[in-house]
């Protein structure tokens, strides 16, 4: 247990920039996040566009009056018309515009949270590779110890050349695998930079974001659910704007000057909904809104179930992590005993190598358990709406 903690601490100190600083920088520079912010800005303009009235129409005419038996004269007509929405429609359109903005902001928040969760998963993959490389370096050091003991016994006449060669092969095998781990660390590092949209290389600290721990289940309120609620409200408000058979009327006024008289007129015109009614448009909009409500309800059930599952699995991982720590302590003690026993010809090289490999495997399982717990916790935070805090 002590060695694994020393190993993790040593891996952390090899790097500089902490993850919070790295994520903050990525949030400011990511093209995906900047694009989502622009979409939110577009929604504000679309709200203003929906509320905008049509411009008035101005009509100007000049007429020539030419009687058959007289001198021709000129007249003129000036007319203006302005469309108006029926009472209450402007209020409904305003509500629709406000929900449009809320939906866009919820989508932006969801995109930020999803990007954060993806970035944290990629970072956790990178951290695991760094720790596994460090673990392999520890394995090489153990293999060197075993080789040194085998060499000492061989030179003193108590061991065989085959045993020495077997110990050397263990060391060489570990060194060859180290090259693959170095490649994997490099691959994951540059993949992380690519996702973050950061072109320059930075010294990045490698440390798991969470400890292995169990948490209580709370109601899921993920960005997905918030976006689904906003979409539902948007579609219901859109349906309200389609609920009227007549949506607007036009007020007209005109002044007409003729040679012998002047005429003033004012009137109102509106559509008669005899054939082209809005019943179908309203029903389609209402059905879409009800579909959105059902989708939101299904999403809530799904994510609540997923949250409960992840929480229970996280609790099991904690138990496994504690059990592996206890096993590791015993294996470290056993390795020391076999090292001393092999020096004194009381144990075999096979027992020593087997114990060494078992100890390394237990450390690897500890890392995998810690990694999996972090992956679960990242998803739990997303489901609770905590990723973008």
**What spatial order of strands do you see in the largest sheet?**
1-2-3-4
- CA radius of gyration is 38 Å
Q: Which series of helices and strands comes N to C?
A: HHHEEHHHEEHH
Portion in beta strands: 5-15%
**Class of secondary structure makeup:** alpha+beta
Q: Report the sheet with the most strands, covering strand number, pairing sense and barrel closure.
A: 4 strands, antiparallel
Shape field: rod-shaped
Contiguous uncertain segments of 5+ residues: 1-15
Mean of residue pLDDT values: 83
Strand segment tally: 4
H/I helix tally = 8
Helix content: 55-70%
- Determine the N-to-C terminus distance: 33 Å
Name a few traits of the molecule:
389 residues, alpha+beta, four-stranded antiparallel β-sheet, 8 helices, 4 strands, 68% helix, disordered N terminus
